[in-house]
Specification:
Helix 13 (210-231) crosses helix 15. The protein has 29 helices and 21 strands. A hairpin with a 5-residue loop joins strand 14 (601-605) and strand 15 (611-615). It is elongated and about 120 Å long. The strands form six sheets. Strands 1, 2, 3, 4, 5 and 6 form a six-stranded mixed beta sheet that branches. A four-stranded mixed beta sheet has the order 13-15-14-16. It has a four-stranded antiparallel beta sheet with strand order 19-20-18-21, with helices on one face. By secondary structure, the protein is α+β, with helices and mostly antiparallel strands. It binds manganese (II) ion (MN). Residues 52, 76-77, 143 line the site of manganese (II) ion.
Length: 722
């Protein structure tokens, strides 16, 4: 069985070899700390748990990462599996190490519950976005490599699901971070579990042809070596069979058996300088026959993950094609360990790796796999992950949304039907407000109701995605034309007034066709509707016709102030109320103050019900609120109407026998229709009655009020305020 001592030793060896700058005393202290914490835990094979973090730290060291990363690797399972706390780790090993450990822990908790291909890119990006520090991902990949290497004690089921996850998430991440060596190992081992037969066949073939292959590689190597010595170029040559999974994948893609497969061999020539690279290339093309179309210069145009090399494919005299990669030692280091190698050169040189992260982020963004270098250069975007947030549905589907998105954006991203029926949201199982910004890894659930009223206009300000905004606007466009027209008209005329132009110029029938043409709408109502649902701003619309309207306004003989210039009003047929400048709008009388003709009134453009009419002295009328300012409109009673209006009295009285009969008698003798009477006790001998009845106007109402005040025991009669 593997022992703690073995692993400790081999980890230290790798650290000394690859990271000589590391503070070994600190490493020892971290090992002691982790060992103590994991003391009672065992791995599946029965060995002490501490072996795992040590092995991970060893892989991290091999890649040449820095001290913090090595400490992070040693401690990486402490938060998840022991009683360690962030503060304790921060106190003992610094906050950077604590953050790395916490970052790895967060990634560990991400559930991989889907296997849809399109989801994988999002999951990978979420990983990167969640780890503010790229070293978190590097440690996590090393963690996965060790777990992959030691999977034989897991159940078959777990082996398969973990291997899928490795193929879908970790190997592509390793690739993107340029860690070829780790990527190959992850893929080869995973293949072994995912397709044991295919893997065995391939291995059997390679084994059977091993001698032949060795002989071939040897002869090529010595041919090249001889030439390089002859021309005085110092270099090393390695021959290898391409890694198992890459052969396997080619067989699948090209539907070929391994015997038919084109090139299995790859040679690598590592030299000291870039000019040497090109010199060697010349000699290779001189020694062997070039396969056309396979030459790639990744030195002048590096791959997205900063991989640099010259690639060419040639055919030897026995007719076997092989690939040759030519690069310098520094390029080689980057090719093997990618970003990690980058740290090796950076540590201790300057403080703050911020720039490095930016560098990293930029290179991660390319979604290209093995494609030509030229393509990715055009696809580079800066800070892509700062612009996105990745969250889960309750079923584990990953959604990518613009950063700053809220539950509303999420709801509309699922479906406009969900957004329109939304009545609430839960984030990580807790009720959340509509405007709570979503964070990476949140699980978001939308609560819907069949009786939901639909989006409110405020949602347009809360949401952050174009998708949600467009869908909300669409809803308003279709569902609320009448309101949109009223709303849009009010904003548009507001613009006019601000510019000192009377809205009445819009009544000019001769000017109208010109205006509509400039505005690009069939009718003014259409334009108002567009402004109302947010498809066009009033400012923009006004801008299109500013000149015409200014001119038309000047022509008017007596310039009037806006308040006097109300156009000939028209009223909604049966409402008895005229809304200034707005035609055919739905009117309703507010229930809070039940205005009747003769009362001073004002209108409010509501969400969904046209204009609601309030008494000027209603406590709900607040003209000072700037947010609402655009929605108050001038209204007046239309003269010709003579129909009853429902209104309410609140009557306070002493609780005397027969007082209700007296009140009812007054109402009865006034010949008004009473729709509701209710009464309740205020205190031991005081009561209050609420009476709802219909009157034609305020005069009639005052007459009734006076009669009531004369009833013995009545203390006060007020207009109702609900
Ligand atoms: Mn682990």
């Amino acid at each position: 069985m593997e022992t703690f001592a073995d692993h400790y030793e081999s980890m230290r060896k790798q650290i000394l070899l690859h990271c000589p700058q590391v503070d070994m005393a600190l490493v020892d202290r971290a090992v002691a700390y982790a060992e103590n914490k994991h003391r009672d835990q065992k791995r599946k094979d029965g060995s002490p748990y501490i072996i795992h973090p040590l092995a991970v730290a060893e892989i991290v060291a091999e890649t040449g990462l820095d001290t913090d990363s090595i400490l992070g690797a040693i401690l990486h399972d402490c938060l998840e599996d022991t009683d360690s706390t962030y503060d304790e780790i921060a106190r003992q090993f610094g906050s950077t190490v604590a953050e790395l450990v916490e970052g790895v822990t967060k990634l560990t908790r991400v559930q991989y519950s889907t296997q849809e291909q399109q989801q994988m890119e999002n999951l990978r990006k979420m990983f990167l976005a969640m780890s503010k520090d790229i070293r978190v991902v590097l440690i996590k990949i090393c963690d996965r490599l060790h777990n992959t290497r030691t999977m034989e004690y897991q159940t078959r089921e777990k082996q398969i699901s973990k291997s899928r996850e490795t193929m879908d998430i970790y190997a592509p991440l390793a690739h993107r971070l340029g860690m070829q060596k780790i990527k190959w190992e992850l893929e080869d081992i995973s293949l072994k579990y995912l397709d044991p037969d295919g893997y065995e066949q391939l291995m059997a073939f390679l084994d059977a042809h091993k001698e032949e292959a060795d002989r071939f590689m040897h002869s090529i190597q010595s041919t090249i070596m001889t030439r390089l010595s002859a021309v005085g170029i110092h270099g090393s040559i390695y021959g290898r069979i391409k890694h198992v999974y890459s052969i396997y994948r080619k067989m699948q893609q090209q539907k070929k058996t391994i015997d038919e497969l084109y090139d299995l061999y790859a040679f690598r020539i590592i030299v000291d300088t870039i000019p040497d690279c090109y010199n060697v290339l010349g000699h290779i093309h001189d020694l062997f026959n070039l396969v056309p179309g396979r030459f790639k210069d990744y030195i002048s145009t590096p791959k997205p993950n900063y991989y640099q090399s010259l690639h060419t494919t040639v055919i030897g005299k026995d007719g076997i094609p092989f690939e040759v990669q030519i690069r310098t030692w520094e390029m080689h280091e980057t090719a093997e360990y990618g970003i990690a190698a980058h740290w090796k050169y950076k540590e201790g040189i300057e403080g703050g790796n911020e720039k490095d992260f930016e560098w990293v982020r930029r290179l991660l963004e390319s979604q290209q796999e093995e494609n030509d270098a030229e393509d990715y250069i055009h696809s580079l975007k800066v800070d892509m992950f700062d612009d996105e947030v990745f969250v889960f549905t309750p079923k584990g589907k990953v959604m990518s949304l613009p950063a700053g998105s809220t539950p509303i954006d999420f709801a509309y991203a699922i479906h406009s039907g969900v957004g329109n029926a939304m009545v609430g949201a839960k984030i990580n199982n807790r009720i959340a407000s509509f405007d709570q910004p979503l964070a990476n890894g949140d699980i978001v659930e939308i609560l819907t109701s069949k009786t939901a009223k639909g989006p409110s206009r405020d949602w347009l300000k809360i949401c952050n995605s174009n998708q949600a905004r467009t869908k909300i606007k669409q809803w308003f466009k279709h569902e609320k034309r009448e309101e949109n027209v009223a709303h849009g008209k009010s904003s548009f005329e507001g613009e006019l007034r601000r510019a000192g132009i009377s809205p009445s110029v819009l009544q000019d029938q001769e000017l109208l066709p010109t205006l509509l043409k400039k505005l690009a709408f069939e009718s003014l109502d259409d334009m108002y509707a567009a402004i109302g649902y947010g498809g066009l701003t009033a400012v923009k619309a006004f801008g299109r016709v500013r000149e015409e309207l200014t001119k038309a306004n000047r022509k008017k003989d007596t310039p009037k102030t806006p308040t006097q210039t109300a156009a000939k009003p028209s009223s909604h047929k049966d409402s008895g109320v005229v809304v200034e400048d707005i035609e055919s709008v739905m009117i309703k009388f507010s229930r809070c103050c039940t205005p009747v003709p003769g009362d001073e009134i004002i209108g409010f453009i509501t969400k969904g019900y046209g204009v609601s009419v309030h008494r000027r002295d209603c406590r709900n009328v607040n003209l000072n609120d700037p947010k609402m300012a655009g929605r108050w409109v001038r209204v007046s009673w239309s003269a010709e109407e003579d129909k009853p209006f429902s209104t309410t009295f609140e009557i306070d009285s002493i609780d005397r026998d027969g007082i209700w009969i007296d009140i009812a008698t007054v109402l009865n003798s006034s010949k008004v229709r009473v729709s509701e009477i209710s009464a309740r006790e205020l205190s031991a001998n005081h009561g209050r009655a609420i009476v709802t009845f219909e009157v034609k106007n305020v005069q009639e109402l005052e007459t009734i009020r006076n009669k009531m005040r004369q009833i013995d025991g009545v203390l006060d009669v007020r207009r109702g305020q609900n």
